[in-house]
Design brief:
With 211 residues, the chain is an alpha/beta fold. It has a single domain (24-210), classed as Rossmann fold, CATH 3.40.50.300. It is 44% helix and 13% strand. The protein has a five-stranded parallel sheet, sandwiched between helices. Helix 2 crosses helix 8 (184-197) and helix 4 runs parallel beside helix 5 (113-122). The longest helix is centred in the middle third of the chain and has 20 residues, at 80-99. The protein is globular. It starts with 17 loop residues before the first helix and ends with a helix.
């Protein structure tokens, strides 16, 4: 077992504070954590949301679970231990981006409630915004945009969330997007309304300054 090295390293504080970066950006940063089954629409909503925030001149970045498995998480599989490590790493990256003043959108199945709660616990209060992209397994399988459900049914994919592996939905998500009932536009509108209610985006901050 490798020795944990926290006691051998020190955290170096930047000369530029997060608040300074947010002031320059004109908006606050946060982590919008989209969780849900494969095929529920997480990546689609994330992309549309980022486009809308970009139009509002907000600084954003998407951390897509599939994309990260091509690089920083390519050494991880899909058993419970590796899934937990996958989420831990994504959470650490998301926190760094939030510290950089960026609205960070995470799109990852993140099936275990405990793993998501652990990320939330390490974030500053209010930073972690859990967005449950709700869609029935039946509808996700009907869509099957990547052909994963078909492969899982044939046994080609093991530990597949929703079929041969569990998914634990959030108990108290800040937002629930019912993508099996509403359009992508509706989902983005719902998230944008929440962001503005929290005065996180540029337009809200500008209105606050003018008043």
């Amino acid at each position: 077992m490798k020795e944990r090295n926290e006691r051998h390293v020190a955290w170096h504080t930047s000369c530029v504070a997060r608040e300074d970066r947010e002031q320059m950006n004109g908006h606050q940063s946060c982590i919008l954590w989209l969780t849900g089954l494969s095929g529920s629409g997480k990546s689609t909503v994330a992309a549309a949301l980022e486009k809308e925030l970009y139009k509002q001149h907000c600084r954003t970045y998407i951390l897509d679970g599939d994309n990260l498995r091509h690089g920083i998480n390519r050494d991880l599989g899909f058993d419970p231990e590796d899934r937990s490590e996958n989420i831990r790493r994504i959470g650490e990256i998301a926190k760094l981006l939030a510290d950089a003043g960026i609205i960070t959108i995470v799109a990852a199945i993140s099936p275990y409630r405990q793993d998501r709660d652990k990320v939330r616990a390490t974030c500053k209060p209010g930073d972690f915004i859990e967005v449950y992209v709700h869609c029935t397994v039946e509808e996700c399988e009907r869509r099957d945009p990547k052909g994963f459900y078909k492969k899982a049914r044939s046994g080609e994919i093991r530990h597949f969330t929703g079929l041969s592996a569990p998914y634990e939905p959030p108990l108290q998500a800040e937002l629930v997007l019912k993508t099996d009932e509403h359009t992508v536009y509706d989902s983005v509108t719902q998230v944008m309304a929440y962001i503005r209610s929290r005065q996180l985006d540029r337009s809200s901050l500008e209105k606050e300054t003018e008043s």
